[in-house]
Amino acid sequence: MARKQRDVLSVEWVKLELLRTAYATRGGLMSKFDPRVVVAWYLVFAVVPWLTHNITTLSVLFAVGALAVVLSRVGPLVLGLFIFGLVTETAYIFAVAWFFDGDVQTVMALLTLTLKLGTVALASMAAFVSLDPEKLSDALVSMHAPPLLSFGVSYGYRMLPIIMEEFHTIVDGYRLRSKPVERGFLGWRIPAAVAFALVRSFYPMMLNTAKRTRTTVEALETRGFTFAGESKAGRSMRLAYLRLGPRDAALVAVTVALVVGAFMFGQHLPLLSRDF
Amino acid sequence: MTAVIAIDDLSFRYPGADQPSLRGVDLRIERGDFCAVIGGNGSGKTTLCKTFNGLIPHFWTGEFTGGATVDGLDTLESSVAALSQSVGYVYQDFGNQLVRPTVGTDVAFGPVNYGLADFRERADDAMRVLGIDHLAGDYVWELSGGQQHLTALAGVLAMDPAVIVVDEPVAELAPARAEETYRMLERINRERGTTIVVIEHHAEFIARYAGSVVLMAAGAVRWHLPVREALARTGELAEHGIPSPQIIDAVSRLAPEAEVPLNVGEAKAALDGLGAPGPVDRRPAEASSARPIASLTGVTHGYRDVHGRLSKVIDDMDLTLREGERIALVGSNGAGKSTLLNLLTGIKVPRKGTVEIDGLDTRRARPAELADHVCYLYQRAEQMFLKDSVREEIAMFPTERARPGTDALVEEILDRLRLTEMADRDGRTLSGGQQRRVTLGIGLATTPALLLLDEPTSSLDVGTRADVVAMLAALAETIRCVVVATHDMHLVAEWADRVLVLDSGRILADTAPADLFDDPALLETVGLVPPQISALGREVGIHPPPLTVDEFVSAYAQAPVGGR
Amino acid sequence: MTEPRTATRKRSLPDPNQLSSSQKLMVFVLSMTLFGLANIFTEILPEFRLGPVELSVSYLAFVPVVMVSLFHPLYAALGAPLGEIVFVDLLMGDFSGIGELEGYIQLALGLYVGGSLVRDPSRKWQVAAAAMVAVLIDKGVGGVIDMSKVWVGVEDAEYVDGLPESILVIEGFAFASDFIISGILFGAIPAAYLAARLHGKIEPLMGMTPRDADHPVPGRARKNAAFIALAVFLSLASAVFTFLEAADVKFGVWEPDFLDQYGTGFLWVGAGASLVVLIGTVAAARANARRSRAENEKER
Hints:
heterotrimer, A: mainly alpha, 2 domains, 74% helix, flat, C: mainly alpha, two-stranded antiparallel ribbon, 10 helices
């Protein structure tokens, strides 16, 4: 079996795809708004579906969520994972409900649940995929989230590729310096070997990261991070760029209109509403 | 009041340590000085510098007596945060000092934290001074080591401190990049009057940039002298692991009465009275016809980047590495050195063309099988440490593959690399040079036909480096072909017999070290700095230039007109 | 220029078992980074689904369990779930807003309790038990929250034929497979092995004294942790029983006739009670943390 350089379905590809998701901001709809408004927009869509059982209303909300996802240019990897999860989860619930003697009512009841969960998930995708993590963390800080959160986000953003690379190196070291893996029955030894290498590789990784962390925390101290936690000036300076504009007001207005519209539409055209 | 750092009878002991790390230190560093702190491993250099910004005793607690005043602040009474506005610190592992995703935000991190309203101007200014303003929007992880170092320095500079401490800039940087850092430090020192303190092993840099030198030994200051006086004490320096620069060595051997030269120009002037030197006696290299160990035919390789573009890293390369060769692979960052090494290990297979190692096509063999024929030693030794002790580390490969005579082999390697004493210690707790020897041991234990090393001399002090070079030379007995990717031209000069100069995925030159150093245009293209002795050799008219001080001195001995 | 000092000033050693604020930050950052990295793998690892049995690694529990066993459990427990949120959810665009909050609390609680139970990280059984407790709490609370989502999300859920049973079955299977895969295979076993190897080795790298039986976690974390573990367990049990009642699953003679008397409204009392216990537990943990912080400050 000859090996070749693959552009898809290889470790390199996965690494690259992850980086692409994390760093190549696709500049969708939501990235143009003030991050605080985006968070608020998300919160509306995270709460409203739970206030109704009307399938029509929920369908409209779901459609709005789906539209927002399209406009936000969500990457294929994330979207694919979402659709796959939604479909299998629903099918699975149906199957089990049928097994326990459910009927159409059961299915419809479950449909409302799926729509609700789906709407919330779509809204979170639309809101957070195209939003720069740094901006999101700024929004959270301006809503008085702990400063450690904001630090965590930017630190993670900075470290991700580096620690991924380091881990890859260690795993490669294991691969090359260990006994070549035999395939075994149905190749079961291969996943087992991968799992073992993964766990073992965390041993050097933990030690190396501990050393790294020591310098980082020391540097944080000398660069005034703890000082900033006590003073308000740095925080307000950092957040100074957050400003609400007419564009943000428009988003709020459209959102309110859509939600109200969904409820009114649902009142007029209730679909398969059950009554007990 | 001109002393920016005043330390009186300072002692410090880490909790649980038997010996104090600092004992009775008295030191005055003048404002505007460029001061180099030198000393062997464990002499207390770094501990001393961490008292300047209060990390000791506020962050790393312990028994602290005596006093230190920095820029008018008593360090015991002030917090690290307050002191850090006066003292900036650039770490030896500076990469971990960068905590924000992009260069611009990282440089502004300090000023923003301290609530300085002009943080943007400060950051822009610092980046402009260091010439990295074009990188402001780049991600920190995309930068080269040198750029990261300048970013860390810019982050410190943006606070406009009175003192900047730089811990071993040369340790993790290629010499040419370290040169850049030193030029920048000199500029900051000259233009802003900032006091610079560097911890440094390399006498060359000290000679060219420092104003005064502090020698630390066993936790105390041995002396603090102006640079010329300090470097004249060659014997004492060598005793503390700091061999004198090649040009000082050469001048003291040829013209002992001359003043200590601090740069190539001064050295040339000092040797002017000796007359013209003769040529260096060296056997001409003959084309090798030995058995090929590795060959590349028409190899093209590239990666997709984050934006999905395919960038070519190796471009249609043909290359044969033969038995008995000591090959140095040089070139600037991004020239394709590590990709070439990765292709030679078989971890990666080329997009086009074939790579054959010891008769095996890398496409047909699994990496684990190829590992019997080729071994790759990473630049960062720590990434190779998978086990608990040095012995297990070295024994891992032969044990896993159940090779006969493993125990004897491991003991022999431990003995040869002088690791027997530390065989049961964890590799991570060893010093840089010891770690490097352990990785060499890992390589030897796999008994490969082809050994690949990435920057084997980086982050080593001069003494340890010489040690590793000697080890490399001894490898020839057991390993048939060794390839070293390096920026270190001293290593190239002293060890290699064949140099491959890589540029944008192509082999720009396939030559001998002396010919490389005789071609300034080529050196310029790929950003290499020749060893000082070769540069001096060219200056005084020796072609091809000498590679070692001995060769240089012998050239004068063979001069047509006697020098003395 | 400062005058020469007359008296020698001395700064004495603080108690080595007392973590300084920077060391807490170190533990937090380390735990965050490592668990973040671990989660990237679980994102990539494939899932196997065979009928109702789903085999997937939901997380590499051993990573944070090793952290809470070796270091101060509170800071390690607070850092780890943040790593998951930051590295995977936020950066990979998989952030689910409010949902992250519940996940964070569940996991942090589980890890804190698990880590506090460890007296000596070199004892393999203690670490293994910590891993199992942590996953048990996290997945148990998670399962109950999932079930309550169905309750809130579906109109009169208890009257929909087959629904309560199916939800119970689904959550039951998920819980069992998570416990076996994440709690034992990728939890207890590797954690016990790694913690013993790292013990006494990783702490000096960060300038800390190793934790052992003679140097336990400062404060009364252990006692509190045991209390929290009990409380969480009870609240879980009560929530599960609530669902069982709704599903008409009857255990032997235990058939409360107050159901007939008060109607199904009583179910809400049960669910509410379990929620109150849960909130109380979290509040107690927080108050405890605050108290121990205050104590630390006083001692410094």
